[in-house]
Amino acid sequence: MKKILIIGSTGQIGSELSIRLRSIYGVDNVICGYFAPPFPDGFFEAGPTVEINALNIDRIAEVVKENHIDTIYNLAAILSATAEKNPKLGWDVGIGSLINCLDVAKEYNCAVFTPSSIGAFGPSTPKDNTPQDTIQRPTTIYGITKVTGELLSDYYFTRFGVDTRSVRFPGIISNMTLPGGGTTDYAVEIFYKAVQGEDFVCPLRAGTYMDMMYMPDAIDALVNLPEADPSRLVHRNSFNVTAMSFDPEMIYAEIKKHYPNFKMTYSVDFLKQSIADSWPNKLDDSAARKEWDWNPQYNLERMTADMIETLKKRLNK
Asked: Considering only the top CATH level, what class is 171-212+243-314?
C-alpha cells in the first residue's frame, strides 16, 4: 500500500486530490502537508496532517522518514498572474520546493509528481494542436518555473532514477475551492456570479481561447499517471492534457442556457490578457492518450451543468 505525502494540500487541487487518494489508499496512508491558512472545512478532522514548509528540505525529509513515504505530490506554486507581481517569490516557491522534493526523493527512494502547466509554452509555440514536443519559450516567471521543473524532473529520472512524472495542466475549473490568482480563474468566477444572480465582468477579451479542464478529470490525471505502467511511458515530464477549449463567449453562452438573464461585460485586465495571449489555443494530448490511456469525461456542456447544480446546492440558491 502506498504512503503518500501531499505538499500544498490545502490549495485548489490538493484539497480535492486528498479526498480521492484517501478513498483509494486509505485515510491513514495519505498525509496532507499544510503551511498557512485558509484551510478547507474539516481539513484537520479528515485524516493525518503535518505542518510543512516546502522550502525547508530538512522538514520534508523528516516527514518522509517518519511516515515511510514512498510518493510525494508537490503542489506548491505561486500561480501565473500572482507570480508576475512577485517574480522572485514565484521562482523560489516553484523551483525551491521541487528541488527539495527531488533531493529527498533521491535519498529515500520516493516517486515525485509535480504538475506542469500550459504556461510552460510561450508566444513562439504553435497555437493550435500544440504538439507534445515543441518549442517552449514562456514569457512569464510561472512558465519559466514550469519548463525548469520539467527539465529538472527528467534530469533526476535519467541521472538518479527518481520516478518523476507530470502533466501540463490547462485551466482547472473547480466547484469546491475558489481560484488563487491564475489567468484562467475567470472560468470559475463566472459560475459563482451566475448562480448568485450577479453580473460578471470578464477580464479577458472575447475570442481568447484557452484549454480548460473540470476538476474531476484533473484528479483522474493525478491518480492515473502515477499508476501507469512505466514501460509504456515515452514521455514523463510533462504530458499535454486537455478536455475542452473555449473563449469567454462560449462559456457565457453555455451558462445562459441555464440562466437566460445572466449578463457579462468586459473590462480587460492587461496583465492576464498578455499572459493568455502567450499561451496555446488548443493542446494535442495524443501522447497522454496513447501512453497511459488519458480520457477526459467532461466537455463544456456537461461540466457547465454539473458546476451549476453543485454550486446551487453549496450556495443554497
From this structure: alpha beta
Which residues, listed in sequence order, are joined to residue 6 by a DSSP beta bridge? 32, 73
Is 142 one of the catalytic residues? Answer: yes
Domains of the chain, residue spans: 4-170+215-240, 171-212+243-314
Phi and psi, residue 57, nearest 5°: -65, -35
CB neighbour class for 66 (10 Å; exposed up to 12, middle 13-18, buried from 19): exposed
Element (H, E) at 32: strand 30-34
Tens digit of each residue's pLDDT (9 = 90 or more) over 182-214: 788 899 999 999 999 999 999 999 999 999 999
Cβ contact 72:101 at 8 Å: yes
The predicted-structure confidence for 132-170, as pLDDT tens digits, reads as follows 999 999 999 999 999 999 999 999 999 999 999 999 999
The fold of the 4-170+215-240 domain, in CATH, is Rossmann fold (3.40.50)
Tell me the pLDDT band of 179, cut-offs 50, 70 and 90. Answer: low
Residues, the chain: 317
Report the helix count and the strand count for the chain, using DSSP H and E.
Answer: 11, 14
Of 142, 156, 186, 252, which one is the catalytic site residue?
142
